[in-house]
Amino acid sequence: MTSSEKPTAFADAATADEQALTRDASFMRVAIEEAVAAANSGDVPVGAVLVDAAGMIVGRGRNRRELLQDPTAHAEVEALRDAARQRGAWRLAGLTVYVTLEPCPMCAGALVNARVSRLVYGCTDPKAGAVDTLFTIGRDLRLNHRYEVQGGVLTDECAGLLRAFFAPRRKEKADPGR
Ligand code: ZN
């Protein structure tokens, strides 16, 4: 795991919007790698990366709740801790967070506390999503910090990982193999 990876170069012909989309997708793919690693150790596949304004990855995290038996070991919190540790600073202004699943209330709040600038997520979470679905943490004017929120980047891939993870478990529940 390194923290010095750069996104791929972009064609000059691409518009600024296309470049931004390509950049977001390429960092989301790194978050997806983290999510796959989470699944490999028996955790729900959610991954996150933090990227600075220059396009350098400065923090990575994946859900390790089962592995660590820690209710707060969500991907976003792990990535924030990674970046803060490396920088020796809790204030992470200017960073963009890429996460495969819409953050829960705890993580959406942690992003406020870290003062991040932007959040990009893959698929929504109907049961815990706290930046668009159930709450709008990140855009709430009552809080002391806000960040830009963008969903829908590589949604199908991010959701597919979760479906693949839960499918055999649901089957097990339906048919306990008596
Ligand atoms: Zn969370």
Describe this structure in a few short sentences:
By secondary structure, the protein is an alpha/beta fold. 40% of the residues lie in helices and 15% in strands. A 5-stranded mixed sheet has the order 2-1-3-4-5.
Can you describe what's shown?
The relative contact order is 0.14. The protein is an alpha/beta fold and 178 residues long. The protein has 5 helices and 5 strands. It is globular and about 50 Å long. The longest helix has 25 residues, at 16-40. The structure holds zinc ion. Zinc ion binds next to helix 4.
Major pleated sheet: 5 strands, mixed
What's the total count of β strands?
Answer: 5
State the secondary-structure class: alpha/beta
Strand content: 5-15%
Q: In whole angstroms, how far apart are the ends?
A: 43 Å
> Widest sheet: strand order?
2-1-3-4-5
- Small molecules in complex: zinc ion
**What's the helix count?**
5
Stretches with pLDDT under 50, minimum 5 residues: none
Q: What is the helix content?
A: 40-55%
Report the order of strands and helices.
HEEHHEHEEH
Mean pLDDT: 92
Choose one word for the global shape: globular
The gyration radius over C-alpha positions equals: 16 Å
Name the descriptors.
single chain; 178 residues; alpha/beta; five-stranded mixed beta sheet; globular; binds zinc ion
Question: Secondary structure elements and their pairing?
Answer:
Layout: H1 16-40, E1 47-51, E2 57-62, H2 65-68, H3 75-87, E3 96-101, H4 105-114, E4 118-123, E5 148-150, H5 155-174
Parallel strand pairs: 3-4, 4-5
Antiparallel strand pairs: 1-2, 1-3
Helix pairs in contact: 1-5
The structure holds zinc ion.
Residues 74, 76, 103-104, 106-107 line the site of zinc ion (ZN).
